[in-house]
Design a protein that fits this description.
alpha/beta, Protocatechuate 4,5-dioxygenase, Chain B, eight-stranded mixed β-sheet, three-stranded mixed β-sheet, 9 helices, about 40% helix, binds 3-[2,3-bis(oxidanyl)phenyl]propanoic acid, binds fe (ii) ion, Xdiol_dOase_suB, iron, DHPP/DHXA_dioxygenase
Length: about 325
């Protein structure tokens, strides 16, 4: 077994709102570096920790974590639509192992996923079915949240399972870093928004287009400095990336959901996927607690056009 990790922010705005040319070039170069590493590493199995944005998971039944035995990408914001190539028996074995480790893991025999899971696959492979891929949903948007410690322990159980496989495993974390996009919160949502949050599966094309246009408009006004959205927080982002890069994952154990949201926005919870990826990598590679991974590549820019503190980190 060998293992590596790629963590990257995603943004639904990547192909919809254009940042300055130098920023776009820097992001494209970061993607190219990650892609080159992955091509060289030549993984035989992908495990991706990904959030969802009320496309696959809703408040009628919201688990903290979920392993997909099969997964269908809904194709939001122009991301790829269709089935992943999930090795179902391996996914089931993985879920059982996590449960055996005393961690409650939900499973789905038909998990619906959105750009949060799909965008890194599109960027790294150009095809969401290119490699056998096990998707693991990590709730990063819908209160209540489990502790960061619980995320770390869940992923540690995943990593211990991966360690026993005769595979080259690429662990992917998708999301973050600081950002506070216009996703409704249940407590302040209108009746119409609550219907979406509760069970808004399979919207009409018109409803999806309207929702996406609202986010695109919000990004344009945020980039123009005409929005009351919470600012991106590059210091918080760099500090979080430092913790990942130096293996100090336990330092996030005490972070509370409210303090994370206050400092870095409601969607900063997506860093849970980065924590998961680094924790799984550490366990899979038998790296002692507090030892740093080998950081192959690191990139960060705060990009308001994408409504994202935008990071890429490649470790092994
Ligand atoms: O709910 C949606 O449709 C997308 C929300 C959203 C907007 C901008 C940046 C993000 O990272 C994000 O998640
Ligand atoms: Fe997201």
């Amino acid at each position: 077994m060998s293992a590596a990790s790629v963590c990257m922010s995603h943004s639904p705005l990547l192909e919809h709102v254009e940042p300055p040319a130098d920023v776009r070039a820097a992001v494209d170069a970061a993607f190219a570096r990650a892609r080159a590493f992955v091509r060289e590493f030549d993984p035989t199995l992908i495990v991706i920790f990904a959030p969802d944005h009320y496309n696959g998971f809703f408040y009628d039944l919201m688990p903290p974590f979920c392993v997909g035995y099969e997964a269908y990408a809904v194709g939001d914001y122009g991301s790829s639509q269709g089935w992943l190539d999930v090795p179902s028996e391996l996914a089931a074995d993985l879920a059982q192992h996590v449960l055996d480790c005393d961690i409650d893991m939900a499973i789905s025999r038909r998990m619906e996923i959105d750009h949060g899971a799909v965008q890194p696959l599109d960027i790294l492979f150009g095809d969401i079915a290119a490699k056998p891929t096990i998707p693991i949903f990590v709730n990063s948007v819908a209160k209540p949240f489990v502790t960061m410690r619980r995320v770390r322990l869940m992923a540690e159980a995943v990593g211990k399972y991966l360690q026993k496989l005769d595979e080259r495993v690429l662990v992917v974390g998708s999301g973050g870093l600081s950002h506070d996009p216009p996703v409704p919160q249940w407590s302040t949502a209108t009746e119409e928004q609550r219907r979406l949050l509760l069970d808004g599966r399979h919207p009409t094309a018109a409803a999806r287009a309207a929702r996406q246009q609202r986010v695109i408009d919000a990004a344009r006004s945020f980039a123009a400095g005409q929005s009351d959205m919470l600012d991106l927080n590059p210091e918080w982002d760099e500090r979080f990336m430092d913790l990942c890069a130096t293996g100090r994952l336990e330092d996030t154990d005490a972070w509370t959901p409210d303090s994370m949201a206050a400092a870095a926005g409601n969607s900063a919870h997506e860093v849970r996927t980065w924590l998961a990826a680094h924790s799984a990598l550490r366990a899979a590679t038998n790296t002692p607690t507090m030892d740093a991974p080998a950081v192959h590549y690191r990139f960060y820019r705060a990009i308001p056009e994408f409504i994202a503190g935008f990071g890429v980190m490649v470790c092994h």
